[in-house]
Specification:
This protein is of the alpha+beta class. Helix content is about 30%, strand content about 30%. The chain contains 6 helices and 12 strands. It has helices at about 15-35, 45-50, 60-75, 95-110, 200-210, 215-220, and strands spanning about 5-10, 85, 90-95, 120-125, 125-130, 140-145, 150-160, 160-170, 190-195, 225-230, 235-240, 255-260. Strands 1-4-5-8-9-10-11 form a 7-stranded antiparallel sheet. Helix 1 packs antiparallel against helix 4 and helix 4 runs antiparallel to helix 5 (about 200-210). It is globular.
């Protein structure tokens, strides 16, 4: 997927055979997602759909699963987020990247859940799934990167069981658009969302970013979310619709991209 993937383990299985086998299964799950969904591989299902050499009906069942999530996200975001994008020439292409990353990591993390008595934090490009099952274990502490100065952390959030995702343009340049207009949103630097699954943390972070100056207002409508928006001028807006989530406010006013633990 063109991004670093790291795994932290603690508890019963960390450096034993069971941990090694779980890691291999995790990596293969992510590689399968890349084979099906990559927009950079000519032989992926997505590329072949866009070239007209593969029909949706003949594609992997995983494609239909992701497209269903994309349709749900498009409806929830009032069209700001969509896996079907139309360019200025009127050409429509399938780009499920805004769904696939979180979905693929969630799918891979399910394999790690088979490790008995073991906590884990699986990170892919800075977006993370955290699980804590060991009695008395502390939550994972996730650093929030300053989108205006990526060498600095703006704060930390503890996450015992949940996921955190950020959308922004600091590391990949301008690649996010409002699907309703095809134009990059203005006034916004990054959006971080914390919720129970990385699938929806990633989708909502991307959708909120696409809303631009309306990101905070849109996030208020999303259930069971904790979110932080960083604006172009450095100001921040915090949104919390999930007080029951084990995700505290950062140690100081902050937002940004989750950094490595």
């Amino acid at each position: 997927m063109g991004m670093p993937v790291t795994l932290a383990l603690r508890g019963r299985h960390t450096t034993d055979v069971a941990a090694d086998e779980a890691w291999l299964r995790t990596v293969e799950s992510l590689r399968e997602a890349d084979r099906v969904f990559s927009t950079y591989r000519d032989d992926s299902d997505v590329s072949r759909i866009n070239s007209g050499t593969l029909s949706l009906d003949a594609a992997s069942p995983l494609v239909r699963e992701v497209l269903a999530l994309g349709a749900e996200a498009a409806l929830a975001s009032d069209g700001a987020f969509d896996v079907w994008l139309t360019d200025a020439r009127g050409t429509t292409t399938l780009d499920p990247s805004g769904v696939v990353k979180g979905w693929a990591v969630d799918r891979a993390a399910n394999l790690l859940s088979e490790l008995k008595g073991t906590d884990f934090c699986l990170s892919a490009g800075g977006d993370m799934v955290c699980r804590t099952v060991v009695p008395g274990a502390h939550p994972w502490r996730i650093g929030l990167e300053d989108p205006h100065d990526p060498q600095q952390l703006l704060g930390l959030v503890p996450i015992a069981n949940g996921a955190v995702a950020t959308s922004g343009t600091v590391h990949r340049g301008q690649h996010l658009v409002d699907a309703r207009t095809g134009q990059p949103p203005r006034g916004i630097a990054s959006v971080t969302v914390i919720t129970s699954t990385l699938t929806w943390a990633d989708i909502d972070a991307t959708a909120a970013y696409a809303h631009g100056t309306e990101a905070g207002a849109w996030l208020e409508s999303r259930p069971d979310r904790t979110a932080l928006v960083v604006w172009d001028d450095g100001a921040t807006t915090a949104v919390r619709t999930a007080p029951e989530l084990h995700a505290a406010q950062p140690s100081r006013t902050s937002s940004g991209r989750p950094a490595e633990r």
